[in-house]
Amino acid sequence: MKIILFFSILLSAITSNAQGKLNQNHLDSIYSKALQNRFDWMLSSEYKYVDVENQTEAPQKIVQSPIKILPKSEIAKISRKENKELIVYTLNYFVLSEDTVDVNFGKYKIKGLRKKNKNGANEEVTKYKFSYETYVPDMRFVLVNNRWKIIKS
User: Fold this and answer.
1) Which residues of 34-44 are buried (b: 16+ CB within 10 A; e: fewer)?
2) CA-CA distance, 114 to 80, in Å (whole number)?
3) Would you tell me how many other CB atoms lie within 10 Å of the CB of residue 119?
4) Taking the model in full, what pTM does it have?
5) pLDDT by residue (tens digit) across 54-86?
6) 3-state secondary structure 91-136
7) What is the 3-state secondary structure (H, E, C) of 68-96?
8) Cβ(139)–Cβ(151) below 8 Å
9) Backbone phi, then psi, for 70, in 5-degree steps?
10) Is the peptide bond before 66 cis (omega within 30 degrees of 0)?
11) Tens digits of per-residue pLDDT, 99-127?
């Protein structure tokens, strides 16, 4: 039990230390490339709503339709206006080393409500739960000649 606790604390410390090393310009570049390289999204005609959870604002300026990068409150307003539940994608990154970063896509459903619910919220959010037996990133980026390249997607 002590060994498991030790390794979980060590992994947490390494992760929090590594996460702080990725500067905003690199994060913006990686997120923009990740969003532009989702081939399944390019084949779809529907809008894809992305909430980057205040991590960056750069992809909003770079990425074109059918991808809409908006805060959760704006997506809830659209859901309320269209009167339907929307799937919202999120992006998270994990720094493996100074030149290697994994990007993972998550998603949740949101439905804008006409009236506030018993918790005082104007939206209902349903999180998707994923279980992996082994860690497999959605995309892996490597820094080569000061440019981020996708090596796995």
Assistant:
1) bbeebeebeee
2) 7
3) 6
4) 0.72
5) 676 656 666 666 788 888 888 888 988 998 889
6) EEEEEEECCEEEEEEEEEEEEECCCCCCCCCCEEEEECCCCCCCCC
7) EECCHHHHHHHHHHHCCCEEEEEEEEEEE
8) no
9) -140, 160
10) yes
11) 899 998 888 888 887 776 666 666 667 76
